[in-house]
């Protein structure tokens, strides 16, 4: 930053593809701090004017202050965005959370569930970073980073317990090419963001095996049904799963080869093992890190998630992808809407028929 330039009042924690994209989006209108995990990474981005490793071909412009010094978060008095991989949220927030100004809103754009605690990412941010729930919001939706970085149109939803907080985030981040909506169902929005990655792994495997569009469409639809089933049991609004964070993100991540989770599924279909694939992906495939926690939550809530179970089997139990998908096809047919009886019962209305 040159002398006389205002200090950034917004900061992004995490210089991966999504964090860098959001920093670039913000920098078009105001200065922003991008906090990298190491000084070597920060120096490389500063020198190149790009984050070639995570966001190749995208010039970042002069409005981004790239640093590894967590003390610079103290200037971000308006908004701090958490954009690190889900497995790094707790240690990262424990390290830097004390530097977040008490006046700042905190936005999680991380999609996942924490193994063991089964916490959602806003809960982990709040717990590890001592951030009050009233200051926390979550952003989710069909957000393939490279497309947004290139200025292609996209939409997302911002969820917060406090409506005025969601409105502030939308005012700060919304652009003509990045349209934001609000939702007060934080639980549902975050479950959508976590669970759709698991379905995307299955969709990538289906593509890798040549199942065709009909087969993948059925897999995506039933995947969305089991996402919604878990959401209903957890207390989320089922309509959230029909929105941008649910259906919208399922379409994007299951249908695009830009999705790392989709690519993971394709690699599994080629017979490769997770241990060999993990280090070769251009970023983190969150579905692999979320599936165990998702299944644990499903067991706690007594919900069946057959697609998630087969993804887990393919990743960690040595079961072939072909066998996983064949076993899904062999499952007994049932009433398509049977999964939603619990929602009907909770609303206290009579079930049709």
Please tell me about this protein's structure.
With 353 residues, the protein is α/β, with parallel strands linked by helices. The protein has 2 domains: 10-184, Rossmann fold; 188-347, N-(1-d-carboxylethyl)-l-norvaline Dehydrogenase, domain 2. The protein has helices spanning 17-27, 39-48, 89-96, 121-129, 145-149, 163-173, 186-208, 212-234, 244-255, 260-269, 274-277, 286-301, 306-316, 321-329, 341-347; strands at 10-13, 32-35, 50-51, 55-59, 64-67, 79-82, 105-108, 136-140, 154-160, 178-183. The strands form 2 sheets. It has an 8-stranded mixed β-sheet, sandwiched between helices. Strands 3-4 form a two-stranded antiparallel ribbon. Strand 1 (10-13), helix 1 (17-27) and strand 2 (32-35) form a beta-alpha-beta unit.
Short overview:
With 353 residues, this protein is of the alpha/beta class. It contains 15 helices and 10 strands.
> What is the tally of beta strands?
10
Structural class: alpha/beta
Low-confidence segments, given as residue ranges, are 349-353
Overall domain count: 2
CATH homologous group name of the largest domain: NAD(P)-binding Rossmann-like Domain
Known CATH architecture of the largest domain: 3-Layer(aba) Sandwich
**Major beta-sheet overview:** 8 strands, mixed
The SSE string, one letter per element, is EHEHEEEEHEHEHEHEHHHHHHHHH
What is the CATH class designation of the largest domain?
Answer: Alpha Beta
Q: At the third CATH level, what is the topology name of the largest domain? A: Rossmann fold
